[in-house]
Amino acid sequence: MLRSLQQLYKDQLLITDEPMNFEQYNWFCYNDQYIGILKASIAPRELQLLHTFMEPVSEKPFHLSELEKWWHSFLYNRNEMDVELMEQELLFSENDMFRFIQFRFSKPFQLKKNWKEAMGAFFEPSIEIIWTSHQSGVIIERDTSTEEDVDFINIIETTASDFYENLRLFVGSFHPFSEKTTQFFQLEETCFQIALTYNKKQSIYSLEETMPYLLIDQLDDNILQLMRDSFLHSFPMEEDDLLQNVKVFIENNLNVSLTAKKLYLHRNSVQYRIDKFIEKTGLDIKNFQGAFLAYLAILLIEADRNGG
């Protein structure tokens, strides 16, 4: 359908990551893309038809509290920290700990106020939510030193069941509020964006899980191609189970017994598959160096096969 629209509207159609210029364009969401069509080029009947096949996107301003505006300016405009303002008006000190939970909906999300109210049940005390687009933003959580952590799986499930939307989260680490806060946030933001490209199946991400994708993304294209040629040649599609078993082994600290428990396999079966992998690749994944290289290669293979 997209090709037909491009042929019909030609240079009067835009495809972007974020809608803009609502005065001149009607915007729609189709297959997780924003499509803008010049208003002057759409007849009333055509507009009704477009609404039938695609979800219209309306321009709704992101209503932020004063505190949320301050956080937005601090995180995204990289403003210098005003300690006096922080202590007197924001009511927290440099010793307070915060973490940033980035989120991304699979398509533009309209019920922002309702969703924030629903999220309030999962966090104590209250949270700030900054929307950076119609489908993404960041939750700012202050550490209260409670033993029970937030149930992020439940957040995913609640969003799916109550709002009929798919959601992905990047759960950042707690950091003390300081001049380096924005640097930590930038790193986590970059890891999340890259992980969304390489691993599209996961719903909840963390820094330690996504950092390998950042390393892969920084590798030279020639090195990546060499890794593809050697490992993809060694492992055809029908041996994906072997790769997954090795991945679980590495993710469980090279512990055969724990891996067997996670995979519901006998310990000897796991050991056989590890030995088979070592024989095929020449990588000794029983030590850290070999396991690290194998893990990067497996992530690269998964990304290639999943369209990353």
From TrEMBL:
Q: Which InterPro entries match?
A: CdaR-like_regulators, PucR_C-HTH_dom, PucR_C-HTH_sf
Q: Where is the PucR C-terminal helix-turn-helix domain?
A: 242-299
Highest taxon of the source?
Bacteria
What Pfam families would the database entry show? HTH_30
**Name the record gives this protein:** PucR C-terminal helix-turn-helix domain-containing protein
Q: What is the taxonomic lineage of the source species?
A: Bacteria, Bacillati, Bacillota, Bacilli, Bacillales
